[in-house]
Amino acid sequence: MVESVIERITRGHFWDFHGGIHPPEQKMLTASKPIKQLALPKQLIIPLQQHIGREGDLLVKIGDKVLKGQALTLSTNPMVVPIHAPTSGTISAIKMSVIAHPSGLSQLCVFLDVDGEDTWRKKTVCADIEQLSNSEIIEKIADAGIAGMGGAGFPTHIKVNSKTDINFLIINGAECEPYITADDLLMMEQSNAIVDGIKILDKLLTPNFILIAIEDNKPKAIKALQQATAAIEKIKVCVVPTKYPAGGEKQLIQILTGQEVPSGRLPIHTGIVMQNIATCFAINDAVRHDIPLIRRVVTVTGQALNKPQNVWALLGTPINFLLKQCDVQAIENEQQPVIMGGPMMGFSVSSELVPIVKTSNCILVPSKTEMPSAFEKESKEVECIRCGQCSDVCPSQLLPQELQWSAKAKDYPQLEKLNLSDCIDCGACAYVCPSQIPLVHYYRIAKAEIRQQQQLDLKAEKAKTRFEARNLRLEKEKTARQEKHKKAAAARKAAMNIATPEATGAKSAVAAALARVKAKKAAQSQSQSQASTAEAQKNLAQSNELATEATNPVDEQKTEVAAAIARAKAKRILKQEAANKPISSNEGVKQTVTAQLEVSQPPSNDDKKAIIAAAIAKAKAKKLSKAADAVKSVNLAESTAAEKAVNLTDKKAKIAAAIAKAKSKALAKKANQETPITTAEDIHLEKIKAVRVESKDESDSKANAAADKKIRISAAIAKAKAKKKLKEARNLAGTVKNNDQDSG
Amino acid sequence: MTDYLLLLVGTVLVNNFVLVQFLGLCPFMGVSSRTETAIGMSFATIFVMTLASLLSYLVTTYLLVPLDLEYLTTMSFILVIAVVVQFTEMVVHKTSASLYRLLGIFLPLITTNCAVLGVALLNLRQQHSFFESIIYGFGASLGFSLVLIMFSAMREKLANADVPAPFKGTAIAMITAGLMSLAFLGFTGLVKI
Amino acid sequence: MNILLAILVLGSIAAIFGALLGYASVRFKVDADPIVEQLDDLLPQTQCGQCGYPGCKPYAQAVADGEAINKCAPGGEDTIKKIADLMGVEVQPLDESHVQGDTTASNRPKVAFIIEEDCIGCTKCIQACPVDAIIGAAKQMHTIIIDECTGCDLCVAPCPVDCIEMRELPDTIHNWQWDLTSIPVKQLD
Amino acid sequence: MAFWIASSPHNHNQTKTPNLMRLVIYATLPGILAQWYFFGWGNLIHIGIAMITALVCEFTVLSLRKKPIAHELLDGSALLTALLLGICLPALAPWWISVIGTIFAIVIVKQLYGGLGHNPFNPAMAGYVMLLVSFPLQMTLWQPPLSLVAVDLNFTNTLTTILTGFTVEGYSVEQVRNTLDGITMATPLDTLKTNINQGLTVLESLNNPVFGDNFALGWEWINAGFLLGGLFLIFKKAIAWQTPVSFLISLFICSFIGYSMSPDSSASTMFHWFSGATMLGAFFILTDPVTGATSTKGRIIVGLLAGLLVYLIRTAGGYPDGIAFAILLCNMSAPLIDQYTRPRTYGHLKGDK
C-alpha cells in the first residue's frame, strides 16, 4: 500500500477529491515581490491567546521593560502556548482589546510600547541539534510558543509529540486560497531553513516518508524546494493540481495518499501528520537559533492597495500599520471590507487595531470591482432552486442545499444526520450558489447552536444529578430527624411513666417547659446575668400563674400543690442554669461571640447538640478563612516559588476541613444545621483553591510557612475544642434529661 | 399467472386505493409527516389488509354463505378487522416500542381505515377467488404504502417550504395529494380489468 | 331460529377471536415503558419549580400521570412540542400562569448574581437553591457557582435584602453565535 | 473609510438564478422555431397569452404575500413555466385554455407552495395534466402540420381561431383541422395508438400522411430543435446531463424491447425519441432542478423511471403521450429517491450515515 502510494507520487499521479472550485487566483499581485522588512511600529497589541487552547499566566505587569523574545506568559498546561515580546519596549497596558476573531469581541491583550532599540534577550544558539534529545527539542518548541500557522493554531508541540507510528509527514505548501502568497514567498526565499525545520520534524516523528505538497501554480517555490531537498531520499516534493480547497488538511491527505481521515478522528490516527510550511520555518528558528515565534510572513494584498506585497510582520502589529505601509487607497463614504485570511475562509475585521497573530497569513483589502460580493450591503439571497451545484463542489460530499433547508428550519437532529459536523467551512458551496445563499454562514450559526445545545444538555445533566443528590440528602436528613424525634418522644414517655403519677397535668408540664425555656434564654447572656436572675424570677411567677390556670379550678388544693411543685421546679431550673452559665459564657469568649449569640432555638436535647456543633463549625470556619487569606496573599506574592507550598497548605487545609467535617457530623448527627455547615466548609475550600485576587501585604515564603502552621494549630484547637464540647454537651444533655425526669 | 400480475399492477397503480378510489385518506393524511412513521404504518397496513381479506374470504365462503347469513357480512368483517388490528398492535408494541409510540393513535385506528373494510367488501362484490382475494388485499395495501411513503417524503420536503400561512399544514398536504391523484390518472387504461 | 343462528355464529367467531387475542396478549406482553425517565430527559433540568412541582423529575412524573404538558416555562415551546410528541397529545401553548419573572426580555441564558456588599449571610438562598449552586455560611457572604447555576431565579425571592439579581452571561468568543449584525464597526481614518 | 463586516466566503462566481432561467428560455428557441415553421403561429400565440397571465398571477400573489415583487417577478421562472406550457398546448386550443392552465400552474402549483424553489411538482406539467383531464376535447384540438392543412393558417387566422373558434373566413376549428383529404388529424402518437387498437400494424399506419417521410412530420424537427437546445444547455452546464441521458436510454431500451418482441404493434425506438414531447421533456422539464432529484444517482434513477413510465403510458395507457404524467410521477418520487441516494460523506464508511 505504502509502496504503491509512493510509486504513484513519484510518477506524479495523485488522487482527486470530490468537488472543488477554481476561483480567480490573483496571486500575481504579490507573488513576484520579495518579502519586505518593515520598520518597527509604535505600539504592539499582543493577545494572550493566539491559538486553540487557553491563555497562559501573565509574567509581566504594567510598566515592565521587556526585551525582544522575552516570554510574556507562562505555560502551565500542554494546551497553553506562551507568547513573547516581539521587540523590546515597555508594557503600557494590559487590557481588553479587539482581537483577530470574526466576532470582533475583545480579549485580554498586552500593549507594548516599542522603544525602537530591538534589543534581544540572551540567546543560546544550538549548534548541533543531534546533541539534543527529542524531549529537549519538544520543550524548545513549546517554549517558543509555536502553534500551527496555517490557520487553526493547534499547539505544535502536542502535534509533534506523537507516540504512534507515523507513516507520512506531509508538509502543506499547497496554499490553495486565492491571493495568499505568504508560504509561496517563504518557500522561495527560505527553502533551506524550511528543509532544516523539516529535518527536525523528521527526527521527532521518524515518519516513513515526508511529502511536501505544493500546488502547481507556484513553479519557483517548487524549484527552490526541489533543489533544497535533492540530496534527501526520504523527502518528496509533490506538485499537486491547483484546485480549491486542496490545502485543506483532509483534502490534501486524500490527494496525496488516497486515504480518508475517518469522521471525528485526527489524521494522526491514520499515521499521518501534517505541518504548515511557516510552522517548519518557525521550528527551525526556535530549535536552532532560539528565536521564539514573534514574527511571520503576512500577505498584504488586494486591489485597494497601491503596493500590495508580503511583509515580515511582528506579531501584535495592528493592521492599520500594515495597511499604511502598503499604501491603502481610502475611498470616501464607502464601507471597505478588510479581510484577515483569504477571500474564501477569511473573516472581515471590525477594527483597525486588530493585531496580527500567529495564525494570520493574509490581510486582503479588495476593491469593489474585483470582489463586488464582499461589498454588498444587503444579501442578494433568493430561494434555493435545488440546482445541486453546491453538492457538486462540496469537498466533503455533503448536501449543502439540504443542510441549508434544515439549518433554516433549525432541525438539528436532521443536520447531524446530514453530517454537518464534517463541513470544513471552505465556502465552495456559497461561492457557486446561483441563488447567492450565504450557505456557510447558515452552517456556522447552526454549528454554534448545536454546540451550545450540547453544552446545555451537559449542564442539564449535571443539574439533574445535583438536584437528585440534594433531594437524597434532604430525604436522609428528614428521616434522621424523624428518627430522633421518635426517640426523644419515647424517652419522654418513659420519663413520664416513671414520674409521680397525678402530680402534674400535661399542661403544667408544658408551662414548666416554657418557663425553663425562658429561664434558659435569660441565663445564656453573660452580661445580663443580674437581669436574667430577675427575669427568671419573673418567669417563675409567670409559670406559677400558668400552672394555676392550667389546673382544674374546682380542686384548689391540688392546684396549689401543682403550683408549688412547678415553682420548685422552676427554682431548681434557675439554679441549674446559673451553674451552666459560666460554662456557656466561657464558650462565648473562646468561640466567636457571634456564633453563640444568635442561637435562639428551644434547647431540646438534639437541638442543643446541633447548636454546639454549629458553633464549633463556625468558629473553625473562621479560623480556616483566616488561614485561607494568608494562603491567598502568599499565592499572589510568590506565584512561582510558592506554588508547591500553596499546594501543601491547600492539602493541609483540606485535611483540617475534613477532620472538622467528620467531627461536626458525629456531633450533629445530621441535625438541621448541617447544610450551612458543609457549605461553610465548601466556601473556604473554594477560596483556597482560587478566588478573587485582592491582597494588600506581600508576605514571603515565611508567611506561607506561618500560614501552614496556623492551619495546623487551628485544626488542633478545633479538635481539642470539639472534644471538650462533646464532653460538655454530654454532661449538659445528662443534666437536662435529669431535669426532665425530675419534673416528670 | 399473468392474470394475477395484472390484478396486482391494476390495484397498485391503476385503481390505487388512495389516489384513485379515495379510500384510507385518514391515515394517509395522519401518519405521513415523517417517512419513518409512514414506513412503519405501511408494514402494519400491508399485514392487516392482506390478513383481513384472507380471513374475510374464509368467513364469507365457509360460514356466512353456507349458513345463508350474508346479511351479517359487514358486521363479521368488522369483527375480523378489529381482531387483526388488535393483534397487529400487540405485535408492533412488542417488536418496536418506538414505532408504537410514533404511530400512536393511528395504529388502533387502522380498524377504522375504510380501505381495510373496502378491500374486504370489494373482494366480495368482484367475486374474487381465494388467491385473488389475497392478491387484491395485498395489492391494495401495497398501493396504499407506495403513495403513503412517497407522500411522506414529499411532506418532509414541504416542511421547509415557505407556504402561505392559511395553507400551512394539512391544507397544502391536501393540495399535494390532489396533484398526486392527478398524476396517477396517467395510469388510466394501463390495465384493463 | 335464523336470529339464533346468527347470534350463535357471531358469538362463536367472537369467542374464537377473543381466545386468540387473549393468547396473544400473554404472548406479546410488554412491560410498561419508562416514560417518566424519557420525560425527565426532555425537561430542561433547571429545577426551577415554576411548574408547581419541586423539580423536573416530579413534574415528569406528574405529566406521565396526566398533568398538563404546558407548564414548563424555561423549556418553552420546544419542550412542550417534544413532550407532546412523546405523549402523543396535541401541542398546547405555554401556560402563562406558570411563568415567573420577565421572560420576554431576552432568551439569553442568565445566572444569578449576588451583590456581595449587600449580602447579610442569611443562608435563605442556599436553602432555596435546587442544585446547591450557592455557597456560604450564616453571617458569611454567599456566592454563586456560575457553572452550576441553572438560572431558575428561585433564590431571588427569598433574599431579604434583595441582593440577588439575574444577570446575562457575557458574550465570549466561545459562546458567540455568529451574529454579524451585533459587531460594532469602528471607523478607520 | 469604514469597515464592512460580512461572512466568508467573500468571493462569488457571480452566477445568478435569473441568468440561468434566461439561458433555459433562449435554449428553447430552436424548438420553438421548428414548431412555428411546421405548425404556424398557434403555439406562439399561446405562449404569449400564457406569459402575460403568468406575470399577472405572479404579481397578484406576490403583492398579496407582500414579497419583493420586482425581484421575484423578473427572475424568469414564471416566464419559463408559461413558455413550457405554451409549447405543449394544441395550437388551435381556445385562449382560455392557456389562461386557466397558467393560473393553475402559477398560483396553485407554484405560489401556494411558497414560490420558486418550493414547488414539488413542475408547474407547467401539472397545469398541462390538469387541462388534459378537465378539458379533453379542447386539449385534443391538434392541428396538422401546415403543409397538410387546407385553410391558410396565417397569423390573423390563427389568432381569431384561438380567440373565437373561427378563422377570419369563418371556418370552424373542426374544419381547420381537416386535411386536404378531408380527414381530421391527430398527433402521430395518437394516430398510431388508435390504429394499433384498431388492429392495424405499425407499417400500415405509417402510410398516414401525418407521419411524413421519417417518423412524424414536423414533430421530428421540433424534437431535433429541442435536442439542440438541450445539448447547448448541457454544454453551458446549466442542466445536469444525467437526467436526460438516462431518460433517453431508458426509453430507448424499453421501446427496443417492445419493438423486438412484436415489431408489428410497436413503434420503433426512434419514433419514440422524435415524436411527442420527448426531447422537450428530457432536456427542459425533467431537468427542472426544483422538482427533480438532487444527487447524481438520484437523477439517473429519475431518468430511468421516467423513460419506463413514458413508454408504459404511450403503449398501454389511456393517453397518447405520457411525458407530462411521467414527469409528475417522477416529481412525486423524487424526494423519496433523494432520501435513499444520499452520497457517502468524506470520512464516513458506506452505509454509515
TrEMBL record, chain A:
Membrane topology of this protein: Peripheral membrane protein
Enzyme class label: translocase
Domain 4Fe-4S ferredoxin-type positions: 375-404, 413-443
Keyword Transferase in record: no
UniProt entry tagged with the keyword ATP-binding: no
Cofactor entry: [4Fe-4S] cluster
Gene3D superfamilies: 3.30.70.3270, NADH-ubiquinone oxidoreductase 51kDa subunit
Binding note for cofactor: Binds 2 [4Fe-4S] clusters per subunit.
Entry EC number(s): 7.-.-.-
Places the protein is found: Cell inner membrane
Swiss-Prot/TrEMBL keywords: 4Fe-4S, Cell inner membrane, Cell membrane, Electron transport, Iron, Iron-sulfur, Membrane, Metal-binding, Repeat, Translocase, Transport
Residues reported to bind [4Fe-4S] cluster 2: 394, 423, 426, 429
Residues the entry annotates as binding [4Fe-4S] cluster 1: 384, 387, 390, 433
Superkingdom field: Bacteria
Described purpose of this protein according to its UniProt entry: Part of a membrane-bound complex that couples electron transfer with translocation of ions across the membrane.
Protein family membership: Belongs to the 4Fe4S bacterial-type ferredoxin family. RnfC subfamily.
Summary of subunit composition and partner proteins: The complex is composed of six subunits: RnfA, RnfB, RnfC, RnfD, RnfE and RnfG.
Protein's UniProt name: Ion-translocating oxidoreductase complex subunit C
From TrEMBL, chain B:
Pfam families linked: Rnf-Nqr
EC number: 7.-.-.-
Superkingdom of the organism of origin: Bacteria
Membrane-protein topology: Multi-pass membrane protein
Localization (cell): Cell inner membrane; Endomembrane system
Main subcellular location of this protein, as a coarse class: membrane
EC category name: translocase
Database matches in InterPro entries: Ion_transpt_RnfA/RsxA, NqrDE/RnfAE, NqrDE/RnfAE_oxidrdctase
Transmembrane domains' residue ranges: 6-31, 43-65, 71-92, 99-122, 134-151, 171-191
Family: Belongs to the NqrDE/RnfAE family.
Primary role: Part of a membrane-bound complex that couples electron transfer with translocation of ions across the membrane.
Protein name as catalogued: Ion-translocating oxidoreductase complex subunit A
Organism: Colwellia marinimaniae
Taxonomic placement: Bacteria, Pseudomonadati, Pseudomonadota, Gammaproteobacteria, Alteromonadales
Automatic annotation (TrEMBL), chain C:
EC numbers, comma separated: 7.-.-.-
Binding site for [4Fe-4S] cluster 3: 129, 149, 152, 155
Region (Hydrophobic): 1-25
PROSITE patterns recorded: 4FE4S (PS51656), 4FE4S_FER_1 (PS00198), 4FE4S_FER_2 (PS51379)
Locations listed in the record: Cell inner membrane
Cofactor(s) needed for function: [4Fe-4S] cluster
Binding site for [4Fe-4S] cluster 1: 48, 51, 56, 72
Residues reported in the UniProt entry to bind [4Fe-4S] cluster 2: 119, 122, 125, 159
Domain 4Fe-4S ferredoxin-type, residue spans: 110-139, 140-169
Main localisation: membrane
Residues of the 4Fe-4S domain: 31-89
Entry-linked InterPro entries: 4Fe-4S_dom, 4Fe4S_Fe-S-bd, 4Fe4S_Fe_S_CS, Elect_transpt_cplx_RnfB/RsxB, RnfB/RsxB_Proteobac, RnfB_subfamily
Top-level taxon of origin: Bacteria
Cofactor note: Binds 3 [4Fe-4S] clusters.
Entry keyword set: 4Fe-4S, Cell inner membrane, Cell membrane, Electron transport, Iron, Iron-sulfur, Membrane, Metal-binding, Repeat, Translocase, Transport
Function description: Part of a membrane-bound complex that couples electron transfer with translocation of ions across the membrane.
Subunit text: The complex is composed of six subunits: RnfA, RnfB, RnfC, RnfD, RnfE and RnfG.
Similarity-based family: Belongs to the 4Fe4S bacterial-type ferredoxin family. RnfB subfamily.
Name recorded for this polypeptide: Ion-translocating oxidoreductase complex subunit B
Source organism of the structure: Colwellia marinimaniae
Record gene name: rnfB
From TrEMBL, chain D:
Protein name (database record): Ion-translocating oxidoreductase complex subunit D
Cofactors that this protein relies on: FMN
Organism, as annotated: Colwellia marinimaniae
Membrane topology: Multi-pass membrane protein
Transmembrane segments: 20-38, 44-62, 125-142, 215-234, 241-261, 267-286, 298-316
Function per UniProt: Part of a membrane-bound complex that couples electron transfer with translocation of ions across the membrane.
InterPro entries linked: NqrB/RnfD, RnfD_bac
Sites bearing FMN phosphoryl threonine, chain numbering: 187
EC annotation from Swiss-Prot or TrEMBL: 7.-.-.-
